[in-house]
Amino acid sequence: MKKHNSLALMAALLLGGLGAAGAQTVNLRILETTDLHANALGYDYYQDKPTGEFGFEYTATLIKQAREEMRNTLLYDNGDLIQGTPLGDYVAKVKPLEPGQMHPMHAAMALLKYDAGNLGNHEFNYGLPFLKQVIAAAPMPIVSANTYLEDGDGNPANDKNAFTPYLIQRKLVYDTYGRPYYLNVGVIGLVPPQIVDWDKVNLDGKLTTRDIVETARKFVPEMKARGADIIVAVAHSGIAADYQPGQENAATELTKIDGIDVVLSGHSHQEFPGPVYKDIPGADITNGTINGKPVVMASFWGSDLGIVDLTLARQGNNWKVTGGKAAVRPIWDKAAKKNLVTPDPAIAEAVKAAHEGTLAYVRGKVAELATPINSYWALVQDDPSVQLVASAQIAYVKAALADTQYKDLPVLSAAAPFKAGGRGGASYYTDIPAGTLAIKNVADLYVYPNTVQAVEVTGAQLQEWLERSAGQFNQIDPKKTEPQPLVNDAFPTYNFDVIDGVTYEIDVSQPSRYDMDAKLVNPDAHRIKNLMFGGKAIDPAQKFVVATNNYRASGGGKFPGLDGKNIVLESPDETRQALIAYFTEQKTVNPTADGNWKLTPIPGATLLYVSSPNAQKFAPAGATLLKTRDDGFAEYTIKF
């Protein structure tokens, strides 16, 4: 029987290849997950409770439904898979994977039979040895074209790819008449070249990177020459209006490359097609195309599934994409606040052991917490959630530099509100009740596996650091009386560094000195006012040590004066470990903010601030709830 079936299939394939009667048209569906960030389950480890707003167990149901609707499907993951929750930390640091053991995210994804996966920037957070171990046990091939081994000879021409750059996979598909064909699908993986800066401690001397677009232009013709009928660019890269060589968000430019048929985007934690990108040149957010080519970005944490539907027509011996559109499907109804699908129980079973181990880990006690901590108002006033991180970093760096040449320099600390809503959604805030302070709460305060580092800066550089940070805010017109949005939503809150140990004001009536790409665009503007140390105006030439993390110290976020060359401390310890040690020593933590910064009052102006509805019970003086929106956020007005 098997032999008979094989012969029948071969005959059908031959018939198709010779041009059987009827149009040779294939409908092909491509599915994308991206930025899952170790969210196998709909479980908030920081709040220690289930949630239906995210989780791969829900996305898995969408994948099965999408496959039932279309006979020909391909499934890809676009990276940032293994880091992002305590579960990711647990299998990397607490109870590391055994050699050959599959990562729990891969164990879950193996049930869905992915065709390939790409590497994201956060795949490198735990170091190359762990990443290579994860890839070796992966249930699908992994691609990354613009990462190269550092051979130290200074000649990029002979550099070798660190990972498989691309694949050409032979896939059996069926046309609209049910006739089978083989389709050669090329898939190339791309990652922001900035990983060598962001994870310098893990990659320096081991890996180099190339520009995303340059890399695609190199390999796409090679893929076509090797027989690729269509090419899918799986790019862990966002969508931007313009392009410059070396930039991290280059998905738009990829659509301009001949030979690329589909772009799977990611990294930015947004949805495409979606209104965020309505003003991108060449974007059609109705059909999900940019410059006529299908593009999809499936949000983050498994909250959406990306779907691209292609129509392929046979032209001679080649297949040509004659039509395509893209869409995202959510797992959660934001307005009704309910799930649109039920979770796939097989996913929970696949990660059961890792999940239970993670729960035991995050529930471990660190100290007692005297009062609650939250980050609902961290963008408008000095906040205890940021203050605690800053204080722990200062304690760590002072001890580490006690016997060095930097021991007599003042130690400041830069920390940012990582969880402050924004693209993370209305529930993405730190909210820790008084009582037992556990590991999960420390991870809630500091969500990234960064390590402690410190840099030496001058007073002048400190001023520019804060000016760049003040790009978090829109410019407020003092003459207007209607509410004006305070926060620039396009500015990531993890780049809003608050520097502790000095005092200053932020005058948002001034334009931002730097634009989103850290270019000096308003040289005469200064939002940072009354910058003082020890009650005196800062001397531009005075030297300081600033405690920060490896991402910022190495140039992450494009801050002026921070390029990795002025690092004076490179600690192997994670910032979270520094926090745990600090809290353990205190035994009882009483979080308070010292009020070292504030917004300069603008009499008569009314600010519009977006936060969680839960922020109302912690509202500062002058703040009033305006309304709760369909997306779950609440709008507040603030008057000086």
Automatic annotation (TrEMBL):
The protein's required cofactors? a divalent metal cation
Q: Does the keyword Nucleotide-binding apply?
A: yes
Signal peptide start-end: 1-23
Where in this chain does the record put each Calcineurin-like phosphoesterase domain?
A: 28-270
Protein name, per record? 2',3'-cyclic-nucleotide 2'-phosphodiesterase
Q: Name one Pfam family in it.
A: Metallophos
Q: Which residues form the 5'-Nucleotidase C-terminal domain?
A: 380-562
Q: Which domain of life is it from?
A: Bacteria
Keyword Transit peptide annotated: no
User: Which reactions does this protein catalyse?
Assistant: a ribonucleoside 3'-phosphate + H2O = a ribonucleoside + phosphate; a nucleoside 2',3'-cyclic phosphate + H2O = a nucleoside 3'-phosphate + H(+)
Cellular compartments per GO CC: outer membrane-bounded periplasmic space
- Family that this chain belongs to: Belongs to the 5'-nucleotidase family.
Where in or outside the cell? Cell envelope
Q: Which GO terms describe its biological process?
A: nucleotide catabolic process
Q: Molecular function terms in GO for this entry? A: 2',3'-cyclic-nucleotide 2'-phosphodiesterase activity; 3'-nucleotidase activity; metal ion binding; nucleotide binding
Q: Which UniProt keywords apply?
A: Hydrolase, Metal-binding, Multifunctional enzyme, Nucleotide-binding, Signal
